[in-house]
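User: Can you recover a sequence for this backbone? Please restate the input before giving your answer.

Assistant: Of course. Working from this structure:
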């Protein structure tokens, strides 16, 4: 059920989000979430419910954004890494949709956290639209594409989960590979799969 005051506060934003289907609508969605987080922290579960497309690429994109920063994020990197590895196994086993751990789904962020994620998302989407295009289709479609996607998620998650203390960029590079996989699937750009591997 949508709260009675929701339409009063965000009528246009809500309608736009329901109309837009791809990840370019994320900026708008995250804006709504950031506004709601002013009142109380918003959980990952609540955020994902606002997304039209509940598939692996979009969820991977959302979850990897906090790791796109040059400093360690503490114990959350272990939990995040395990989650990406689980998602990788689910892709390889051909799950129809992602199944996330309850601990991840129940993790709540305040407005500051969601605003930071929204800014990172905006930069990445703006940049990716300029450099991605459909190509090398065999790396992002059918059986081979699933193996690449699942494998990179699995091994990237393992690398992210290994504790390296305060070592700079220890989350960033595995996260970057995972991000490239998500972008590759969004834009059907097999080149980004190859970049993620190397």
């Amino acid at each position: 059920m949508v709260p009675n005051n929701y339409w009063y506060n965000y009528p246009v934003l809500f309608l736009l989000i329901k109309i837009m289907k791809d990840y370019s609508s994320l900026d708008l969605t995250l804006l709504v979430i950031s506004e709601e987080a002013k009142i109380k922290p918003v959980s990952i579960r609540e955020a994902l419910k606002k997304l039209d497309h509940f598939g692996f690429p979009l969820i991977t994109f959302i979850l990897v954004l906090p790791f796109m920063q040059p400093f360690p994020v503490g114990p959350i990197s272990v939990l995040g890494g395990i989650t990406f590895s689980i998602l990788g196994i689910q892709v390889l086993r051909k799950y129809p949709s992602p199944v996330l751990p309850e601990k991840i789904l129940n993790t709540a962020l305040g407005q500051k956290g969601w605003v930071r994620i929204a800014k990172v998302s905006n930069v990445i989407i703006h940049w990716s639209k300029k450099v991605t295009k459909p190509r090398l289709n065999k790396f992002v479609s059918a059986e081979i594409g699933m193996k690449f996607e699942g494998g990179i998620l699995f091994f990237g998650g393992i690398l992210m989960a290994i504790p390296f203390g305060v070592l700079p960029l220890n989350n960033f590079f595995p996260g970057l590979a995972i991000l490239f996989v998500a972008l590759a699937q969004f834009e059907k750009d097999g080149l980004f799969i190859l970049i993620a591997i190397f």
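That completes the design. The first strand starts at residue 42 and ends at 43.
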